[in-house]
């Protein structure tokens, strides 16, 4: 059966169907069918440096880990946008273009309040992504956003905190085989207690939180057995607080970068990453960790 494609005219809002993908030409073709085929065939979204993905169950320390990695100085860490979960996993851009056209898809991105945190020219990055050859529009847009944000600080390494990506580890590996995935986990009893306090999760039942957490953990363990430690690494929240220098030295060795004591002085990095969206929320793990920074999280 012949595959169906969607023709994208960069200069029009309407999207006729028919031609095949031709990267860099005036008309490019993408669509749900071609994206699914590309992912099944293991097509890779080209990137000179694959992202470092920071994952973990909600309330397990992902914000703390994000701030520590940002404080290293060699990594560009974007404020949390959930772009991977909201766009890459469901192929949102691809689907929107198929239904409503390029202009509507551009408008969708420009109206995304979470992307405003990046302070980038989203329209220009989207147009560049459309013009370039790509197997997966959403994944390519994601990498371009990370790169553009990194370029503001003249950095080539970039990382993103995406807690629920723990449910999509295989997809991450398929898209970027060289990607490093750092998974922080915490005593599930403390995770549950924290979730019952947080504004975004306290309405959920304890049973639901426990079941979802267990499923996510099992998924991560299955993935770990498949890819090994070269790709996937775990760090325990409690051990990080107990002896941060030791744990971070080990993580830096795994990442292939030099350990820097500045990672323990992450207050400024945390403030820059979370001030735009967590200031009005309930106390978070970052806030808790910052309160401990003078005692537990100090350089040895």
Explain the overall architecture.
The protein is an alpha/beta fold and 300 residues long. The protein contains 14 helices and seven strands. The chain has helices at residues 32-40, 62-72, 83-88, 92-100, 102-110, 122-131, 137-151, 169-175, 188-195, 206-227, 237-242, 244-255, 267-274, 285-292; strands spanning 6-9, 27-30, 52-55, 75-77, 157-161, 180-185, 232-236. Strands 4-5-3-6-7 form a five-stranded parallel sheet, with helices on both faces. Strands 1-2 form a two-stranded antiparallel sheet. Helix 2 (62-72) packs across helix 13 (267-274) and helix 4 (92-100) packs across helix 5. The radius of gyration is 20 Å and the shape is globular. It starts with 5 loop residues before the first strand and ends in an 8-residue tail after the last helix.
Q: What is the fold's blueprint, element by element?
A:
Blueprint lengths: L5 E4 L17 E4 L1 H9 L11 E4 L6 H11 L2 E3 L5 H6 L3 H9 L1 H9 L11 H10 L5 H15 L5 E5 L7 H7 L4 E6 L2 H8 L10 H22 L4 E5 H6 L1 H12 L11 H8 L10 H8 L8
Parallel strand pairs: 3-5, 3-6, 4-5, 6-7
Antiparallel strand pairs: 1-2
């Amino acid at each position: 059966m012949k595959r169906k494609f969607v023709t994208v005219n960069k200069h029009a809002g309407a999207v006729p169907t028919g031609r095949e993908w031709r990267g860099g030409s005036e008309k490019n073709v993408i669509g749900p069918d071609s994206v699914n085929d590309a992912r099944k065939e293991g097509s890779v979204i080209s990137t000179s440096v694959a992202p470092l993905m920071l994952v973990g169950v909600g309330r397990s320390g992902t914000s703390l880990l994000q701030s520590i990695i940002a404080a290293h100085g060699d990594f560009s860490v974007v404020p949390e946008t959930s772009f991977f979960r909201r766009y890459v996993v469901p192929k949102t851009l691809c689907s929107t273009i198929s239904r409503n056209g390029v202009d509507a898809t551009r408008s969708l991105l420009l109206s995304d309040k979470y992307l405003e945190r990046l302070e980038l020219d989203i329209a220009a990055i989207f147009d560049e992504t459309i013009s370039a050859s790509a197997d997966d529009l959403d994944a390519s847009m994601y990498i371009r956003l990370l790169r553009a944000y990194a370029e503001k600080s003249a950095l080539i390494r970039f990382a993103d905190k995406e807690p629920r990506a723990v449910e999509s580890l295989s997809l991450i590996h398929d898209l970027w085989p060289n990607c490093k995935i750092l998974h922080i986990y915490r005593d599930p009893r403390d995770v549950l207690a924290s979730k019952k306090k947080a504004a975004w999760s306290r309405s959920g039942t304890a049973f639901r939180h426990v079941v979802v957490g267990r499923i996510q953990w099992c998924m991560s363990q299955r993935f770990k057995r498949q890819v090994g430690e070269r790709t996937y690494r775990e760090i325990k929240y409690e051990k990080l607080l107990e002896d941060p220098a030791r744990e971070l030295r080990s993580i830096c060795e795994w990442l292939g970068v030099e350990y820097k004591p500045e990672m323990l002085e992450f207050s400024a990095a945390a403030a820059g990453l979370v001030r735009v969206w967590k200031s009005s929320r309930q106390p978070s793990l970052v806030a808790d960790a910052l309160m401990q920074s003078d005692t537990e999280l100090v350089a040895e």
